[in-house]
Queue: 3 jobs
Job 1
Amino acid sequence: MIKKILFNYQNKSQLIIAMIGSFLGFTFLVTSIHYLIRVNEFGEGEEILGNNTMIIQKKINNFSSLKMTKNDFSEREIESIQKENFVEILQPILSNNFDVALQTDSELVPYLRTDVFVQSVDNEFTKIDSAKWKWAPGDEFVPIVLPREFLVMLNTFASAKGIPPISDDLAKSVGFKFTLTSPGKKEFEKVRIVGFTNEVSAILVPETFMKYGNLNFPKGEPAIITQLMLTVKEGLFGEFENYLDKRNLESKENSMIVGKLKSVAGTLFSILIAISVITVFLAGLVLVQYAQLLISRNEYEIRTLLRQGYSPKKVINSILLYFIKVFAVISAASIIAFGLLKYFIDKLLDKGGIQIDSGFTFLSVLAVILAFVIYSIVNYFNAKRGVLKTQ
Amino acid sequence: MKIQFNNVVPIPLNGIQHSNKSIWGNSFSLLKGEKVMLNASSGKGKTTFTHTLAGIRKDFNGSIRLGEREITSFSPEEWANLRRNHLSFVFQDLQLFPQLTVEENLNLKNDLTDTFATAELKSMLEELEIIDKWSVPCGILSMGQQQRVAIIRAMCQPFDWLFMDEPFSHLDEENTQKALALIARRTKNIGSGFILTTLGENHNFSFDRELNL
């Protein structure tokens, strides 16, 4: 009966306009948060190196080939890059100054032996469990990260021998070993592949193994630092790229493109989130204003109910329940609209060759639930103030 | 529930000299079950009196006690409980819901307190000769018919006191007598009292007490 008295005789046009505004705001909000998360996740999982991790080196030109310019980094240069705003973490990549060969050590794969180039990076750049990315003399295995190109080469070789190709997972269980040599000295170390990378062309090993090799099998020439590994701060790829151009440095193009795309898309979605939040806020204000108008238009009805002995709590709860239903309709409609939008956007991205996770992101749905809860709380206090004022 | 007035003067009537027979500025008690007539001409504060006792107006000096409590100390929820179980009103402006039917107006109160069965409600309407208006919206009833609906609605709850502010102003003498008989029977059944404000007419009812303004 209270519902009939308070809501049945109201002009609903303002409510419908506010509901449409909120629905659009909620839909943009959930969509932009979802795609911001998906953009940031893009490319994760396939790569063992952390997000936004780049390897930089000096550009090689004809003068470098003639040894007229240096292509290694001095300590001063490293310190200078370290101070740049876009740098989150920066470490030099250590290269081997000893002879090392990798050979297969399993009956599952054909015999292959090749001299290799190894590099070491700090564990903070990789997604490998730190307990797995360590080595000490006497350990059973040296953990390594294998360039994916190396596995392709191995599979090409296997095909030529009529052996089935090796998957990433199988490669991790195949036996390999390193042969470390120096004049009059030879040592074998078993190797276990813990991941793959598209970013680095050398085999990655823990720093302790690199130091062990350089110390015990030295070639006599001092090791130089020709590459640096760094993590670029989220959204600062533009600054990073400008710096590389200015300082005649270069990075692998594909990771730069992905990074830049993520940076641009991330910025766009962040702007969309800001616009959505403003829309949700404004639509919320219109809804609150509608609720205030409803209370004020119903002043006689509310006052009469209270004078007949209706509890203020009961009247407040009736108003609250009505608006909770309104907010629930808005939230449900926006989640359904988001589901439809997502279906078409994902299809479009897939067509364009961008495969992203097709699941719903928890945070985006949580944002709608949060907006719903905030709307309800604001409306509760609004109704309480309005009803208690109408005595 | 005893009602105790101690030197109560509504703030708008502060500058006026009140006689020693007036309820304003004097002290008196109203005991449970008393049938009281408040007699005064227009503009003397009859509605102010009813609204003050209903907790609607708080602009007065002095003190009013309902039972053991100061009237100003009740919270909104306590007022709701009082208006549901202890104090009933027939306001001068009736305060019906014009868009609701007679049935809905009565049930709005009756459902809250579970006092009467539908047959009892209809019987009261019949007694006051408006049973044919059961399904008619109150907004299209005459003022006299609306007054009778408001009186029956005031019966639909338990109460210690019934406050009526000129409840028969639009009723002829015959209908007034019928309404008064209904009120007297109901108050007798539940052992409660009432205060009826009038413009001087006692409607041939023998009141326990008469108050003046």
Job 2
Amino acid sequence: MLKLPNVMRTKSFKAYLFLLPAMIVALLFSFLPLAKCLMLSFFTVSQSGRIVAFNGLGNYISLFQNSDFINSVLNTLKFIIIFLPVNTFLTLLAAAVTRKARRTTAVTEFIFLTPLAMSLSALALIMKEIFRGRVSVINRLTDLSLSWLEESGSAMAVLVILSLFLDFALDYILLLAAFRSTDKSIIEAAEIDGAHGMSLFFRIELPSIRNVLAVTIFTALKDAILISAPVMVLTEGGPFRSTETVMYYYYLEAFRSGNRATETTIAVIMVLFSVIIMSLISRRRRDV
Amino acid sequence: MYKVLRVLITIILAVLVLFPLFYTISASFFSPQDFTDTKAHLLPSEFSFRNYELALTHRYFPVYALNSLITALLTATLKCLTAILSAFAFTHLSFKGKKALLITLLATLFIPPDAMLYENYVMTARLGLLDTYLGIVFPSIFSATAMLLTMGSYLSADKDIYEASAIDGAGDLRYISSILVPMTAPVSITIFLQSFISAFNSYLWPLLVTTRPRMRTIQIGITMLGFAEEGEMGAQFASIAIITLPCLVLLFFCRKMIMKALSGGIK
């Protein structure tokens, strides 16, 4: 088809106009802030963001010599090591036992989706009340006498429980969709070969969703590395900084201490992490 | 054997998943004594709507709820609009730098907003948008995921209709609003629903960009109602129940759609 040059031009102009809102948001809240962080992280910066002197890798080096930062890295690692396996196990289990369409499917799906309706602050308030003090609801129900939120180990446990609720529904949906899109003919062929129940599940169905499972785990890992809001509403990093994660430390440094060097340096490191994980995800996604 | 195990696991998981919700609804009817009894209550000792009255007559509760409703509607509407316009441009128009612009917009997926929290705050402050609705919604009105989802549905739209409507003299906006969007409505509705729920439930960003009580959204508001300090834990739970209910209803009626939207790329 022959296109006149001036028609092309008006189309171009119109296309740019249509893309303008998206580009403005991307520019203002993704690219400009990232460029600023990248640049400032190599300089000595005043609290207002004014550049004082070039500092090379100085900010990065002093960040890794900072014991508070190292503490937050260790806390985040601890969180990930507990959260990731438990989260994967529970969501996979829930998806596995409800994967087949039955009469009760509508009920089980709705139940496992309900955490989606509960917001972070609502869940945090509920957790705080359930685990409050020595006479907490949980303790009275189970005859324990643990001050959950006042002791390091158990505070981390409550943080993990809260995060499990926040991630559960989404991971469940992803895994359930994956199970249901498994090629039926493969399953039928395996059934004819005598595979049933457990062996069918572990030999055929689970391997067939491995890519989606990997995507779910990587996404949960990315969220876990970036965890900050649940810490803020639940424990504020306490007791004794035992739940102070990297991104909560970032929040404290940026908003409370006005330390721009630490803020921009952590931001750059976090973007790097997220780029690595996102590229792992997109590689898996392509062959889902 | 396998069946018994399966049903058992399902029930245990269901009980665990439902516990916070169950406790919230139950505790929203508790009297102040029910919270402090030596034997923990799971059900209220008597049935009364007193806690709901306390929550609903709180000076700021309706203000917070209205703010949340406005910002969630704004976010969902604007996010759909930016997704529709950009998806249309990428699938229906030819222009210079198309690929570069697409890659640029998709690159935002790699930049986590959490890591840009402070810089985005500074940006919002510099734009003079602190304590405004626009400030609360602005960073989240474009999502590359929503654009990709919309593009997917537009790619399968019949180009002949577009060309026919162009010959008939209908402009692009006319084509989008009266043919393309109605034809792909399920996708736009799912994006709308999902962004509504996530905007309604968002906590951190609205907390940072608002300072006046009149601008607070409900998610921040419920942590500041002061019921716990007055010994009215029941009213605190009633307020949680009130804000959870709309999302539960949405989930109940649009379960299939929401699941489809969230499973996104996976067929």
Job 3
Amino acid sequence: MKRLPHLFRSPEAIAGALILALLAAMALAAPLLFPGDPQAIAGPALLPPFQDWSLPLGTDRLGRDVLAELFHGARTSLAVGLAAAAAALLIGALVGTLAGFAGGLVDEVLMRITDAFQTVPSFLLALAFVSIVGPSLGVVVAAIALSAWTGPARVARAEVLSIRERDYVAGARVIGMHPLEIAFREVLPNALPPVLALSSVIVAAAILTEAALSFLGLGDPNRVTWGGMIAEGRTVLRTAPFLSIVPGVALVLTVLGVYLAGEGVVESTAMRRSLS
Amino acid sequence: MSLLTVSNLAKRYDSGGKPFAAVDDLSFEINPAETLALAGPSGSGKSTIARLVLRLIQPDAGRIDFEGSDFLALTGAALRARRARLQMVFQDPLAAFNPRATVARVLDDPLRIHGIASRAERPRRVAALLERVGLNAGLAARAIHEISGGQRQRVAIARAIATKPSLIVLDEAVSALDVSVRGQILELLIDLQRQERIAYLFISHDLGVIRAVAHRVVLLDAGRIAESGDARAVIANPQSAIGKALVAAAPRLTRNRP
């Protein structure tokens, strides 16, 4: 954990890390603090916040506890954001490494596929994918990953193109290492830092995409999501605006936290690079 | 019979649309346990030859026979298996290793890839290799970037001899080392050659070093052989223009000045 002192040098990174820690704590604590089904009816409908202290954030149109929904929604947002970003980075790094290292026809084919994915607006792609396959958490993760892997693929390929000309790659060939082992054991780990720098942007975009899909009714119907809560609250926006504002603020804070913490990590690694 | 026979080798590059012959109709041979030096000014094709001989790049024409068989005909697994017999040491001992590697991993890789020792036996073999090149076996756990340049070049030599090769290509292998370390590395190379009967293709621009270690020398000019023969004889009395220029550029060698 040599990185931590660097990370906590900038106040933005501290704020981001705190928000993320709070969010993670919310997600982890949700089943302990609110053990029952968050979608069960808990009290009278449309109770405003700060009226009844057993329901601090009030209830929605159906009388469901907003605070419980918020906590359980944090689980969904974080799970989808992290899973989709991890999948996108994994696919992107694999495709980019193969394209950059193999070159020739393999490179052409893989990069034209990447082009094809990039020309379709990513949200439209996710929307189409979910509406064809059907909404469930796994499908939403896949849909978001499908529209986000092209960035990491391009970055990984560019990095691999420069690394594959280094002496140590020639050295690995001279000792008879298999090309796939060279690509994934010698080249890929050294190409990863700039790819990982994209992760905060991708996590943030994934959380927003998931919320947008849920808002359009294409989220997993069996799970509470912040996007779904905003969509629910939209119908009573004039009379009970807090139903949309509460999950909206949570969403903004989460994305902000991810960005700030991500920037902090990128800056601290850049500092380490320039120091060494 | 010669160990390595290179015949009519050619490699062209495109530089700004104009074809440029890096290596042009080149032939030479190396005998077992012999050191052949390739010398020449920058851009004379020395490193291209090293890469061609190691099959890191493909020649446009010519033939390479290694240990009695056509080396250029090998592909895939057969080529990788044969690579055990033909190794290389690079100029920059830092660039030649994965920056994340440890000494142990660098030496373990060739043993594992060529199935030379079982997993349980490999740490002992790694230690033996380190001792063979004059390093402490305790160095195995260190990261490559933690050891000195001279130690790194010894590790590179240990990696090259791990698979018991018959030929090692040394591409400016001592040029980046300081003078005191250079002498020790050259002694190690000569000692290894005597004991293991390894042949060297010794690429260098330093005629002083070449005279100390090489049996024969080939002087290159623009991808062609300008002159070749016994190393001491050629350096003492160069016939070609490029040979004279190289000797004149090495002040230590022009002793008998009026």
